[in-house]
Amino acid sequence: MRILMISAEGPPLARATALVDVLEALPRELRARKHEVAIAMPYYREISENTAIDLRDTGITVEVQVGAKNHVAEIVEGRTAGGVQTFFIRCDEFFDRAGIYGEHGVAYEDNAARFIFFSKAALELARRMTPTPQILHVHDWAAALIPPLVADQKLPFATVLTIHHLAEQGSFWGLDFDLTNLPERYFKPAGVEYFGRLNLLKGGIVFADKITTVSERYRRETLSPEGGCELDIVLREHAHRLVGILNGADYKRWNPETDHLLPRGFGPGQLEGKMICRALLLDALQLAPGPSGPVFGMVTRLVPEKGFELLMPLLDRLLSDDVRLIILGEGDAGYETALAIAARKYPTRFAYRQTYDEALAHLIEAGMDISLIPSQIEPSGLSAMYSLKYGALSVARATGGIQEIIEDYDPTINAGFGFLCYEKTPDAFWDSMKRAREVFHDKTTWTTLMERAMARDFSWSEAAARYESIYVELAGASSVAV
Fold it and tell me: Residue 57: is its pLDDT beyond 90?
């Protein structure tokens, strides 16, 4: 099969997002299964400034119309760490910026034009590739205009749309529809229009040949008014094309036994390295080595969907006790300020770092005892997969993919390896945190749960096989149609 993945995010971006991890691991796994896979993404400033990336100017340029204006896209070629061919779409007017979607929590005003341009340029790239891709696998709202464009131009591609974050839909003013240059009939309820606005993700849902979400639980949630982010009506209408596939964990990158970013590796039955990583983590962040309470940690985006409305009211209560807390992440300016103030208030117990640092992220995973996942929405739960592999048990809200990854600890039958919270209140999350802390002080039981967690396997092989079956089905249908 010949597959082109199209996404606004992917390697080599240094971002703590599930989308970057997926675009690194899934194409590599598909290549191992003998498929031809390439990636298309924008050429951001971060990429141009990364001297470690080996890039080649292909000499290919395409002219793209966005509304009444024409823009030129230059195609730059590179490869991921796993050897997957990557095409970067360069247009400095749109992508030579400090951020991806915005800065300091504020979206760029021209995001509609930026990603309509990207989608059109990626489609023009696909038309020029030799051999021609059979499948265009697009990810999230920023590439979701591609299925409507394929349908309108009657192009010979099958399209798959994967929804990683339903809450982020690419919803813009209705007047921005003119930027798509699609016929007026597409700005209707059966097209890209939603309550008078241009909704790119909705258009992808309507026109994609197959839609996937990143876990079965999340698929069910998206079909409900509570979890559907106001698109549940549209998703229920197209539920026959909607499939839930749990993401895999990239164990080539996130494995404590082989992680070259750690001062010492470790694994089940050999936990001395974790204690060394824990001590070095606390020292590096100038946190107190004692008392003996647990080290909590989070590597995350600072956005409401990650559950900070549950965590923020608990900070003083938590940090007044015998714990250490470490948070790495950027996002909402209000959360960043509140965390920075808390870190100054509790300098020996709480460390907050805003800018993502790959080495620090790995050391946090290795050194923390308990990972906090208070998320409102957790579509796939990749962070939980990584934490389990590094022996950090999770206190998590039971939502989305979390329920397919973490089994709640039940001492009566000696089963499970995590601590789930089933209510959306700070007090309920606090109760789950207290439960974890109590078990933590029983070292024999805690070690048993760590070993149990580290033995869990969420490799990409099963997920890749399911995507492969979808591609084969769509390619077969396309050949019959021809």
Answer: yes
Give me the CATH number covering residue 285. Answer: 3.40.50.2000
Q: Tokens 């790959």 label which residue?
A: 358
Separation of alpha carbons 339 and 335, rounded Å = 6
Instruction: Report CA Rg, the chain.
Output: 23
**Terminal Cα-to-Cα distance of the chain (whole angstroms):** 17
Predicted model pTM: 0.92
Between helices 146-153 and 111-128, what is the axis angle to 10°? 50
**Chain length of the chain:** 482
Task: Please name the amino acid found at residue 43.
Answer: Y
Q: Are residues 447 and 470 both part of a single domain? A: no
Q: How far, in Å, CA of 203 to CA of 157, rounded?
A: 17
Is residue 50 in a domain? yes
Tokens matching residue 222: 């998206």
pLDDT tens readout for residues 363-376:
999 999 999 999 99
Phi, psi angle pair for 139, to nearest 5°: -125, 120
Which alpha helices (H) appear in 97-165, and where do they start and end?
111-128, 146-153
Among residues 377, 355, 331, the alpha carbon closest in space to that of 107 is found at 331
Q: Which residues of 21-59 are buried (b: 16+ CB within 10 A; e: fewer)?
A: bbbbbbbbbbbeeebebbbbbbbbebbbeeeebebeeee
Output DSSP code: residue 175. Answer: G
